[in-house]
Design goal:
The protein has helices at 2-40, 43-80, 83-105, 107-123, 125-137. By secondary structure, it is an all-alpha fold.
Length: 138
């Protein structure tokens, strides 16, 4: 276990050092871009163009990352299905088992309840409309 922790610490330190070098490299690339644009434009316009190019690059990276993340999520959803569907299926199964047991033990009560519910829904239009809106909202 200690070897795993040591390995994780070494990898973390290496990643942090590499990140510092990447930031330094990015800074020098920005300066090089500015200096190249300064040969063609006045310094203020070269700075503005450098910032604009960096913003466009940042948006491209974000768009690529977002599309890759969506593709990974879709692939995982196809493979496993959405978790809410699995939960809904399990809840439906559990409720169905309970209702089935209750109906098996009390068939007369279930018949009377279903008849009263059917009459109420058939005779009261506002109740019927409410239930239809509620079902469509699910």
């Amino acid at each position: 276990m200690q070897a795993l922790a040591t390995r994780a610490a070494i990898m973390t330190a290496a990643i942090l050092i590499a990140a510092v070098f990447f930031v330094g490299t990015g800074a020098f690339l920005c300066v090089a871009l500015y200096e190249a644009l300064k040969l063609l434009f006045v310094p203020a316009l070269a700075a503005l163009l450098t910032a604009g190019i960096l913003l466009v690059f940042a948006f491209i990276v974000i768009a690529i990352g977002s599309s890759v993340a969506k593709a990974v999520e879709k692939r995982a959803r196809k493979k496993h299905g959405p978790a809410t569907a699995e939960i809904g299926l399990e809840l439906g199964r559990l409720l169905g088992e309970q209702v089935s047991r209750y109906a098996g033990r009390n068939p007369i009560r279930v018949l009377i309840g279903a008849t009263i519910a059917g009459l109420a829904i058939g005779l009261i239009p506002s109740l019927r409309g409410f239930l239809m809106r509620w079902v469509k909202g699910l």
